[in-house]
Amino acid sequence: MKKSILISVGILTAIALTIVLSIGGKKYMDARTHEKNLENQRQAALALKKKEPHVTKVEFISEGSYPGVGIPWTVGAEVTMGGEIYNMSLEAEGDYSINLGKDENNYKSDKLEEIKSRKAVEHHLEVIYSNGETEVIE
To answer: What long-range pairs does 72-75 form, CB within 8 A, spacing at least 24?
Structure first.
């Protein structure tokens, strides 16, 4: 009888330890992923500033992720250029796409071309990360 109780307690202890270690491991990996996503957000903002010198502000609206096999890390952001806000998808490597809605296609497309045709002036870039932290990049 005592032997079966000890075995039961041992099994329950092993199960409890497995659960605790799994939860701790997941929290650790989530924290590492969060930090890597913030690094990628900064890289994406710097790459966009280099390609599009008219950008004055980037506000990340998601943390970012790898959406599928072979697809690079991507994040959603609201990007300000020439006083207009554009909904964009940015990659850490520097590629980006502008997501224009049906109602704003003509206006936003025309406005973007007008902004890009202007001479670029040196200015700082305000970056608001998905965790709410702000950085000004010169």
So the answer is: 73/37, 73/40, 75/37, 75/40, 75/41, 75/44, 75/130
